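Q: Given only this backbone (395 positions), what sequence would you predict?
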């Protein structure tokens, strides 16, 4: 067996999976929540065994990681006898700026690089660093690999990633579009290439979940994406506004007497379909409300759908045509209504879907009988992608 531990450390959480790379099966997974906050809890499941739940104060990521190790090595409900059975650790890292165009085997230089981008990922990069440092301390001698959410998008051309602001802002302060969800967009792209047996494809990948983004992929390389300097740009999301006139931002600050931090929080946490509907950021709740006649819930859905459709058109133009449109993420994988609405009226792109196939679950080919564009549902698997990258670099 070849065990790889995948860590996704957030500001107060650690999500993890232990994957056996001999068969790419999940051996164990878990989540530590509320690290450093009252009510901390670890939930661990080794495949085929009962859950372990630990409720106790966990002051920091180090303490939380010790609990993860305890759970993984638990004599009865754990997955391994000792941590020595784990050959490498793969870490999800939010922001790799322009430095990291590929996953990287962690050393002091790489850690310094991740630190350099704390300003651009102030919530995530410090937590990602903590996750890596904790593993280095608690699992000495086991290699760590950093897999960046931004890396896949580093192939965008300058005319796509630059903002129309003075060039010095880019040169001096790295202000540009980076894009996120790169690990997911890359995974979806690779699955499509495998499925269709070719790489010379123009693909639009639609990752639709709590956070949502589209990527335009030509011959396996990203040429544009909807998210920007931060994950706020682009589509209307669960709680994020997506694209907005920058002057509206300063106007909101004046009208609501907000500071810069407050307006950023307003746009990130109180906006999107939640802000429009006043109902929920969860599409199951929104659709239930819309079905009961809640007009604002329906409006929020219409706005979400319209923005996706608009970007599909834009990316089809950027790609010079489109061969494949693929859906992934909690919404993309489960919500046939959203998939169908996003592609309605795109006959001019020769896209149509099969309504019966669209009712299915899991990986689907929902291409319509007369559609020239393949339409696929590809359940994303960022953890597996991170484990694959980690195996390739560390073993
Ligand atoms: P993710 O961030 O990819 O985990 O996606 C989470 C989101 O997916 C949730 O907030 C829901 O809005 C959405 N979701 C999950 N399951 C369903 C479903 N069966 N139907 C519609 N939306 C869903």
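A: Predicted residues:
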């Amino acid at each position: 067996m070849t065990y790889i531990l995948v860590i996704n450390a957030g500001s107060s959480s650690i999500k993890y999976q232990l994957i056996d790379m001999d068969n790419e099966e999940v051996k164990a997974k878990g989540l530590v929540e509320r690290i450093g906050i009252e009510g901390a809890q670890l939930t661990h499941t080794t495949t085929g065994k009962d859950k372990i739940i630990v409720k106790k104060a966990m002051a920091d990521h180090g303490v939380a990681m010790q609990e993860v190790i305890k759970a993984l090595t638990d004599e009865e409900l754990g997955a391994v006898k000792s941590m020595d059975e784990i050959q490498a650790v793969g870490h999800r890292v939010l922001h790799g700026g322009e430095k990291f165009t590929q996953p990287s085997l962690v050393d002091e230089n790489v850690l310094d690089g991740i630190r350099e981008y704390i300003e651009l990922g102030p919530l995530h990069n410090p937590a990602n660093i903590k996750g890596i440092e904790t593993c280095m301390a608690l699992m000495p001698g086991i290699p760590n690999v950093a897999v960046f959410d931004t890396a896949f998008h580093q192939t965008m051309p300058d005319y796509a990633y630059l903002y129309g602001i003075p060039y010095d802002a880019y040169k001096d302060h790295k202000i540009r579009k980076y894009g996120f969800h790169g690990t997911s967009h890359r995974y979806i792209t690779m699955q499509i290439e495998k499925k269709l047996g070719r790489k010379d494809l123009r693909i639009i990948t639609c990752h639709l979940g709590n956070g949502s983004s589209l990527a335009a992929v030509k011959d396996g390389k990203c040429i544009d994406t909807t998210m920007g300097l931060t994950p706020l740009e682009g589509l209307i999301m669960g709680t994020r506004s997506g694209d907005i006139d920058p002057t509206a931002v300063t106007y909101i600050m004046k009208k609501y007497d907000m500071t810069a931090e407050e307006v950023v929080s307003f746009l990130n946490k109180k906006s999107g379909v939640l802000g429009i509907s006043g109902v929920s950021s969860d599409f199951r709740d929104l659709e239930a409300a819309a079905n009961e006649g809640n007009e604002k819930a329906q409006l929020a859905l219409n706005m979400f759908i319209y923005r996706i459709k608009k970007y599909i058109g834009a990316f089809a133009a950027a790609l010079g045509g489109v061969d494949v449109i693929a859906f992934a993420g909690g919404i993309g994988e489960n919500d046939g209504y959203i998939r169908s609405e996003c592609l309605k009226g795109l006959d001019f792109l020769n896209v149509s879907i099969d309504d019966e196939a669209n009712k299915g679950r899991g990986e689907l080919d929902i291409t319509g009988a007369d559609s020239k564009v393949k339409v696929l549902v590809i359940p994303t698997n960022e953890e597996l992608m991170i484990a694959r990258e980690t195996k390739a670099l560390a073993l």
